Amino acid sequence: AKSLGRACHKVFDRTMHLRAVELLHLETDLRRAIERQELRLHYQPIVSLTTGRIHGFEALIRWQHPERGLMSPAEFIPVAEETGLIVPVGLWVLREACQQAQKWQKQFSTSFPLTMSVNLSGKQFSQPDLIGQIEQILQATALDARSLKLEITESVMMENAESATKMLLRLKALGVQLHIDDFGTGYSSLSYLHRFPIDQLKIDRSFVKRLGADDESAEIVRAIVTLAHNLGIHVTAEGVETAEQLTQLRALECEYGQGYFFFQPLTEAVVEKLILTEQQW
Ligand code: C2E
Ligand code: CA
Ligand code: CA
Ligand code: CA
């Protein structure tokens, strides 16, 4: 048993070592990814559940790694957050997404109120110069601030609710819209909800997933939607995958939906084809 223990220990050490080396490689590669133009944005449509039309898009990052292929954010965002690289990466995302939104608005119709949602990580959210940087990006891309929606997770807001509220007010003053992401997964959210100057919340897909499967989930979603509406906040349901979920969400008067039932995250070229073929605007 002793030698087995030692062997296990060895294997464990080796795994840890490999993992550390791999993380180091990943960090080095990520540092160069921006200048080497390996980062990409995909855009997932957000659909109005009342009209069935596309209301806007959420920008979702991908990394076209030279050896590993197309990497999902789950594979590198944690490393980016740990190393602080999320700050330059996040600024790249903001700039790229704003540029894209402005381009589509101009290209397709000036009256088409297309919005662009961008995820902000906790590290970015606590950067003192975030406000100035967003202001600069809006100016440089000539995007109307109202078209930009910033998604901040409930847990980031709750981490330090006092300073978060101040930051949210400063962001709000820029004219951008603020959304709570992954709502329902943090704590004590309900009591704080009225204090945050937010425009919308996104119900986490774990609740949406169970809609139709158990009655309790429907009750939770109903409670969230009712509370949000009482506070004048609109609701987006994430991860809508089935017609049954859609039916329930409409019955609950949830305003917007996003998920594979409607569209997957799409490349720029596919979005452009979609807009042209649907001619729904
Ligand atoms: P999120 O903000 O909750 O984004 C939604 C995720 O759910 C996306 O995964 C999307 O592809 C996926 N999704 C959409 N519809 C469905 C569905 O019907 N079913 C299922 N199972 N999944 C669906 P993705 O693109 O892999 O992104 C994962 C997470 O990575 C995001 O979660 C977000 O937290 C983070 N992320 C993505 N892009 C950025 C970014 O630019 N900056 C930062 N800080 N984080 C990002
Ligand atoms: Ca582009
Ligand atoms: Ca999001
Ligand atoms: Ca989310």
TrEMBL record:
Q: Does the keyword Chaperone apply?
A: no
UniProt KW Phosphoprotein keyword: yes
- The EAL domain covers 23-279
Source organism's superkingdom?
Answer: Bacteria
Annotated signal sequence is none
Q: Which UniProt keywords apply?
A: Phosphoprotein
Query: What is the protein name given in its UniProt record?
Result: EAL domain-containing protein
What is the protein's species of origin? Answer: Trichocoleus desertorum GB2-A4
Parent protein range shown?
678 to 958 of 1007
